[in-house]
Design goal:
It contains 18 helices and no strands. It is mostly helical and 415 residues long. It is found in: Cell membrane.
Length: 415
């Protein structure tokens, strides 16, 4: 552990030095950080020699997801998306449940050793998508607005939606394994969701009040204005956990509340820069730790069944539900293929996996479940990273050659 932090800092500085040159190429930041972490990890150089159950790993993952959840939720403007809400609504309202159902069925068939709650838990863990793994797909202005916004909004919201589902299914799996009683499981889920929502609303209202009131009175220094969303995310998380609530639900609800109140007061969105940049930095470190701490040991437990499920999860389990969710909208084949393929698994899945590691021995087939999740993430980092830029450019060219009203280019709205 002595040289872990200096090594991570050197990796971050090194990537910063080439970041502009690799932007838009198949060499993405998650690929670089994951591979570097693997080379520095416990199974290789041993520089980042931290166990997956170490408190610092859990803290890093949880803070990262809390920041990302708050930021994603705060940026959601349903009024602005009203004219383009059809696609993300279908992907989230129809595609997400079907993806979980398909993942559950595939796990029961391919990974027959898993008990049914464990198979369902694996499906939920692998359901949320992470647009950062294929960033070109949501940053190229030449891509059709409907497609780009749909994938961006889906990625921003499905991890928040999957958090309560994860807590519920994890409690069911623990109760089925005899780790906790049924009554304790129901009480645990109720408290985590309830206290999480309360803490999130309070944190969001408090942060928006400070930003709006102090801003109107010219009492808020612009530098400190940038710290308000970061502080609000941390407040939501740290207030929910001692109460017995979910810090992730609190962060997501806090972001929704903060963003809605800020927009209602017509406050400039510049205050959101710092939380975006902080979330990106923590995400980079999380991928390094993922490669070093989780991926190395998982590769040692790799089997054909695990690899097969990972491939199925990234293809059939994602692509068929997406196609079914768009029935009636008459999408063309390239659009279906593009939307179906770009469902990368990333940060939320990493955090869910670490949360399960924190409770060792409570699930009968925990190692198989975790190995499958980690291998799926690693395969997604590589496959979606390598294909994002070339396939986005190819699809954009096809959309220009086959114009439809929904295929108009999207303005660059991401920071």
């Amino acid at each position: 552990m002595t040289w872990a932090l200096p090594a991570i800092a050197v990796v971050l500085l090194g990537f910063a030095g080439i970041s502009r040159r690799v932007a838009g190429t198949p060499i993405t930041a998650p690929i670089v950080f994951t591979v570097t972490g693997l080379l520095l990890g416990v199974e290789a150089a041993g520089v980042v020699d931290v166990h997956a159950t170490a408190e610092i790993v859990k803290l890093l993952a949880e803070v990262t997801l809390a920041l990302v959840l708050f930021s994603d939720a705060a940026h959601v403007d349903l009024a602005e998306l009203r004219t383009e809400i059809s696609l993300p609504a279908r992907l989230l309202g129809i595609g997400l449940p079907l993806t979980i159902a398909a993942g559950f069925g595939a796990a029961a068939i391919v990974l027959g050793d898993l008990a049914w709650p464990e198979a369902l838990l694996l499906a939920v863990i692998l359901a949320p998508t992470d647009a950062a793994l294929g960033q070109a797909v949501v940053t190229l202005p030449v891509l059709p607005m409907r497609i780009r916004q749909g994938l961006n909004v889906e990625s921003g919201l499905n991890d928040g939606i999957c958090v309560p589902l994860f807590l519920i299914v994890l409690a069911i799996a623990q109760a089925e394994a005899g780790a906790i009683g049924d009554g304790a499981a129901a009480r645990l889920v109720t408290e985590q969701i309830g206290y999480g929502v309360v803490a999130g609303v309070v944190a969001g209202v408090l942060a928006a009040t400070v930003l709006v009131t102090a801003g109107r009175r010219h009492a808020l220094d612009p530098l400190w204005a940038h710290t308000v969303p970061v502080t609000a995310a941390l407040l939501a998380y740290t207030a929910a956990v001692p109460l017995g609530g979910s810090g992730f639900i609190a962060a997501f609800v806090g972001g929704l509340t903060f963003g809605a109140l800020r927009r209602r007061a017509d406050v400039d969105d510049d205050a959101g820069h710092m939380i975006d940049e902080t979330g990106d930095l923590f995400s980079a470190v999380t991928f390094i730790v993922f490669g070093a701490v989780l991926l190395g040991p998982a590769l040692g437990s790799l089997s054909w069944a695990v690899l097969g499920y990972a491939v199925v999860s990234l293809t059939v389990v994602r692509m068929i539900p997406v196609a079914l969710s768009l029935v009636g909208t008459h999408p063309r084949a390239p659009t279906l293929a593009f939307l179906g393929w770009f469902g990368p698994r990333g940060l939320a899945t990493i955090v869910f996996a670490i949360l399960i590691v924190e409770e060792p021995g409570e699930l009968p087939h925990e190692e198989l479940l975790l190995t499958t999740a980690v291998i799926t993430i690693a395969l997604s980092v590589l496959a979606h990273g390598l294909t994002a830029a070339p396939l986005a450019a190819r699809y954009a060219a096809w959309a220009r050659a086959h114009p439809r009203p929904e295929n108009r280019p999207a303005p660059d709205t991401r920071r």
